[in-house]
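As noted in the main text, all predictions were made from sequence alone. Below is one such record, for S-formylglutathione hydrolase.
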Amino acid sequence: MSFNIIKEISVCKGKLYKLTHESTAVKGTMSLNLYVPSTASKGKIPTIYYLSGLTCTPDNCTEKGFIQFQADKFGFAVVYPDTSPRNVTWPEKANVDTNNWALGEGAGFYLNSDKFENFKMFDYICKELPESLSESEFGKTIDFTERKSVMGHSMGGMGALAFYLKGITNEISPYVSCSAFAPVANPTDCPWGVDAFNFYFKDGVKAGESLDPTLIIKSDAFKGKKLDILVTTGNSDPFFKSQLRTEKFIRAVEDNNIEGVSVNIEDGFDHSYFFVSTFVPQHCAFHAQKLGLI
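Prediction:
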């Protein structure tokens, strides 16, 4: 599948590409950003997929996360997908509230909706996008499908955790490692997740259980497992108690005797990109080690 280069920008020691392509999964045009460090010219390098949170576009973390400095340091590419399809034509009975920023465009929740045909973000992120990038010119110097890790923030942290865990159980192509900033860790037990699952799925929250990181990791399939997960959340995050449910994720990990999951609660930090950018170096070093770059 071909990608259209909308803009090529010199940044840090590499190039940022603003791309669009036609997606079969979401039945429309998708935008994404791709950062390619200069080390890509020296051999095939691994990829980190960064999944953004509610209301975000590919530009939020690209412009405020400063991952590019770490990509140059360690030698990995960064893919910044969009958070949903855009310019969606909704069914008449969809009852979409365009003022609700937590549903619809910018809030795809990285799932496959069985109510709205455009919202197949699970298939798009996990299958179509990596395969399409691999088949493109960029695939000659970047490994998009095997040496790959996933990182996310908020709603994107939920997606990152769910995708990584599903890779462990071979439901999708596996990721080497996973990290998340302030993830929505137990979406079936918080307003954002409950509203989203009821909106996107015919069976509502019940269908959303298969994407809930806390429910997945507490299952028998993960009992005693050794994983590679890093989670960081600020205790001054306004959504800490009402939406993130970090403590329930921690309890599930402990109850199932799972190793290799580090959850850090950082004093004084909120939900913003000031928080994310502060801990990006730590998260990138974690991934670089797991990807064999250090």
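Residues 4-290 form a domain with the Rossmann fold fold (CATH 3.40.50.1820). The chain has a mean pLDDT of 97. These features were considered when defining construct boundaries for the mutagenesis experiments described in Section 2.9.
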